Amino acid sequence: MKIDGHVHTPFCPHGSPDSLKSYAERAIELGFKEISFTEHAPLPEGFSDPVPEKDSALPMEQLELYIHSILEIKKAYSKEIRINLGFEIDYIEGFEAATSKFLNNYGEIMDDSILSVHFLLNNGNYYCLDYSEEGFAEICRAAGSVEDTYNLYYRTVEKSILSDLGSWKPKRIGHITLAHKFQLLFPAPGQDLERISSLLDLIKAGGYELDYNTAGLRKKHCQNPYPYNSAARLAIEKGIPLVYGSDAHMAEDTGADYQAFERLITGLPLSSE
User: Fold this and answer.
1) In angstroms, rounded to a whole number, what is the distance separating the alpha carbons of residues 145 and 137?
2) In CA terms, which of 20, 80, 131, 221 is 20 to 30 Å from 177?
3) Could you tell me the residue ranges of all domains in the chain?
4) Which parts of the sequence belong to the PHP domain (predicted)?
């Protein structure tokens, strides 16, 4: 059954104004039987969004409208496709209690959710990992090197996997190799797959799923999915369930590059790393 488990919405401040209807109809057109709207959950109270536009997540004042709108589209298309109400939850080091509070308040209504790392804490300052190549370079300067930045990201992902966020903590870990978004400008260190393997062991031990996110294929400085091919194969070898996600921020990207996921799970040859 074709499932797109990572789809954004017009409520995303850094996305497109495409309607929920257009996302749903695109998925139906492509033969998907299920999609999860996983909008970026509101950032925790007290956390200052480090990106210039302050547009990383759904504003809290739009949260109830988002929930109502997803419930409406679920009902409207219930005969054509299963639509899940969900969130992409940011793990932010130091804000675990506030994140748990949000999940306790809204977890019961969630059909699906993803736990992702976008923000890195370094020497008391927060940085957005994937905002821009200039922003990534800034993190590298602050952390000490490109290798240190990758290691900081993986340490933070490890903390997200091990964190106690309560009974509503998401069971799917998002785009585990997001540090590769600018890899053609800032190549990964040589021990990268070894580091990812240790994270996969934690994911396996915790009973989590893994987001197979094809957005990286659409990024000019990445051109690989998250996780990249050899890491994805390693996850399969370890028995970790992978869930395809387009990470669409516009309706036309719903279901994008699904064939890469099909080739992966059927064992067909993939593009070179």
Assistant:
1) 9
2) 20
3) 3-266
4) 4-215
The CA–CA distances, whole Å, from 105 to 29, 79, 98, 167 equal 35, 29, 11, 11
Burial of 15 (0-12, 13-18, 19+ CB in 10 A): middle
Position 206, amino acid? G
Query: What is the reported pTM?
Result: 0.96
**In a structure prediction context, what are the per-residue pLDDT tens digits for the chain, which is 273 residues long?**
899 999 999 999 999 999 999 999 999 999 999 999 999 999 999 999 999 999 999 999 999 999 999 999 999 999 999 999 999 999 999 999 999 999 999 999 999 999 999 999 999 999 999 999 999 999 999 999 999 999 999 999 999 999 999 999 999 999 999 999 999 999 999 889 999 999 999 999 999 999 999 999 999 999 999 999 999 999 999 999 999 999 999 999 999 999 999 999 988 666 544
Task: List the beta bridge partners of residue 121.
Answer: 126
CB atoms inside a 10 Å sphere around CB 123: 6
Q: Residue 207: which region, alpha, beta or left (left: phi > 0; alpha: psi -120 to 50)? A: left
Q: What are phi and psi of 114, to 5 degrees?
A: -130, 140
| Tokens read off for 41 | 């959950």
Task: Return all residues near 178 (Cβ < 8 A) that are at least 6 apart.
Answer: 116, 117, 118, 129, 130, 153, 226
* Three-state DSSP state, 235: helix
